[in-house]
Amino acid sequence: MPPPNPLSARLKIQLKLSISRLRHIQQKESALAKQQRRDIAQLLSNEKDESARIRIENIIRQEINVELLEILELYCELLLARIGLLEQRRECDPGLEEPVKSIIYAAGRTDVKELLQVRDILIAKFGKEFARDALENPATSVAPRVHKKLTIEPPSTELVTAYLEEIARTYRIPWSGLPEAERKSFADEGDDDDEGGGGIGVIDTGLQLPSVGGLPEKVPVPPISVAPAAASTENPRPGVTFQGQNIKSATAPTSAKKSDIPDFDELSRRFAALKR
């Protein structure tokens, strides 16, 4: 039995640490963005549109960073699942070349020190020429989505408006940028809330309503449910279309907590989705 490769052992440890760290940062950034969305909703409610447009750019940048960290987490999981393939070959396997070069390129542009350790180990294993190709030719050697998310450019006006519309709808604010029907609906809701104190009082008679028996405690779940894709900076207005019309669907059930290392089929599906 050959002795264990110390380089591969270090890589395995650092990949696990990187996955844990990347998940933690994603959760932290998402929580911060949620609070900032509330602040922007308050600005829209106070008709401070220009301030809202400026501050929304920071949220968009944060969400792009979260999406980048999610991709890098997936790449780390893929390398961890194929650690045996990395150990056996002196040269990088063609199927792992894009994830490896993407990590080498992106590690120095993140605040994840564990990912920097992974980058250094990969460079030590595959050589400086391999790393130079990733750093100097990212457009051809790095995953396009990783390269795009690391490109610093201001968000488009359409993307900014789409984010503001989504925040206004979420917090039901009659913002001027929404369609007239939605504005009127949200404004009417606000008027109803303001008039909440003028109704007819309820007299407590001390009587109790009879209980209704025989009803099921839980409503059966329909056998088929369709949920739109999660919103992202690349698709800020996800939806489900049926016969040319957009339909609303129930919120998708919360997925179970993922394990540290997903199975190979799950990784393959997620990896293919990132390439679309």
UniProtKB/TrEMBL annotation:
GO terms for biological process: endosome to plasma membrane protein transport; late endosome to vacuole transport via multivesicular body sorting pathway. InterPro entries: Ist1, IST1-like. Residues 242-256 have a biased composition (Polar residues). Residues 182-203, 226-263 are annotated as: Disordered. Pfam families: Ist1. GO terms for cellular component: endosome. GO terms for molecular function: ATPase inhibitor activity. Belongs to the IST1 family. This is DUF292-domain-containing protein. It comes from Lipomyces starkeyi NRRL Y-11557.
